[in-house]
Design a protein that fits this description.
2 domains, alpha/beta, 333 residues, six-stranded parallel beta sheet, GFO_IDH_MocA-like_dom, Rossmann fold, 35% helix, Dihydrodipicolinate Reductase, domain 2, 9 helices, oxidoreductase activity, NAD(P)-bd_dom_sf
């Protein structure tokens, strides 16, 4: 069994599962999607046929009862992450849960506890972290080429405001731009800094036409020694997802920081007094690498580089950002 493919079940057929995660898992020679479930059996059957998946279930419970399934991917709306992660753990399934892992840090801690008790792996699906370019970016920082770190700027915005029925616009379902895309700059800054922020301040646009969720937010995360992340995120603005790392002697520019839609789009640039150079990044599928990371963890080959505690810490920052935006105050962590 230890050398066999990891057999996956998919709980739900969200757009991210259809577009990216299912093809990513199927692109791995170590992983296999054996089943998919939806609360609508016809939808599950159509998804199974579209992706060449052997088994379709008309309920999530049926999939979790399938003893052949070893791991599940959960792309359900944010408010369902805790329930179905815990139920999957209790069924003995390893869990890849879509970001943000929960609605708050307390929920994330409950999920971590349930998975630890069941002895299963839990990974938050920040696929960008699995791509080799972030190791390459961190190596440039560690090398001293751009000098001492002075700050990070990042953004993730898109315009979906016209899709009135989108789950991102349901406040009680965990809607809003900070949950949906702001989590990426926050997560990346924590990764690149190698530490947790000390305080956050966020201003946001809460739209009464979108169930009062934050449709746009701009924020400041304060780290040690006066270094900060300045970021913005939104679901009511033109698309962009850049990241910039500023040092005393240079700048790292990442034009497409979290998604790489085309060959070469993952490349980044280093600007110093010596000039500007382009760093070529391998064109590899981050979703496939994410599945392979799960395989190695489940098979005991390698521990996850970022475990559930990292996800809990990320949620603590998101909690503080939402509180700051609502109350219009600086929040110390």
């Amino acid at each position: 069994m230890s050398n066999s493919k990891l057999k996956w079940g998919i709980l739900g057929y969200a757009a991210i599962a259809k577009r990216a995660v299912i093809p990513g898992i199927q692109g791995s020679d170590r992983n296999e999607i054996a089943a998919i479930a939806s609360r609508d059996l016809d939808k599950a059957k159509a998804a199974a046929e579209a992706h060449g998946i052997a088994t379709a279930y008309g309920s999530y419970e049926e999939l979790l009862a399938d003893e052949s399934i070893e791991a599940v991917y959960i792309p359900l709306p944010n408010h369902l992450h805790k329930e179905w992660t815990i139920r999957a753990a209790e069924a003995g399934k390893h869990v890849l849960c879509e970001k943000p892992i929960a609605l708050n840090a307390a929920e994330a801690a409950e999920m971590e506890e349930a998975c630890a008790k069941a002895g299963v792996v839990l990974l938050e699906a920040f696929m960008y972290r699995c791509h080799p370019r972030y190791d390459m970016i961190r190596e440039v920082i560690r090398s001293g080429e751009i000098g001492q770190l002075r700050g990070i700027r990042s953004a993730f915005t898109f315009n979906n405001a016209g899709a009135a029925q989108n789950v991102r616009f349901r406040k009680d379902w965990g809607g809003g731009s900070i949950y949906d895309v702001g989590c990426y700059p926050i997560n990346a800054a924590r990764l690149l800094m190698g530490q947790e922020p000390e305080a956050v301040t966020v201003q946001a646009i809460f739209s009464p036409d979108h169930d009062d969720v934050d449709m746009m937010a701009s924020g400041l995360l304060e780290f040690e020694a006066g270094v900060s992340l300045t970021f913005d995120c939104g679901m009511w603005a033109a698309f962009r997802n850049p990241l910039e790392v500023l040092g005393t002697d240079g700048i790292i520019e990442v034009p497409s920081a979290f998604i790489t839609p085309a060959p070469g789009s993952g490349n980044f640039f280093v600007q110093t007094k010596e000039g500007r150079r382009e760093v070529e990044v391998p064109d590899v599928n981050a979703y496939t690498l994410q599945a392979d990371q799960m395989y190695r963890a489940v098979r005991g080959e390698e521990a996850l580089p970022y475990g559930p505690n990292d996800a809990i810490n990320n949620m603590k920052v998101i909690d503080a950002c939402l509180q700051s935006a609502r109350d219009k105050v600086r929040i110390r962590l």
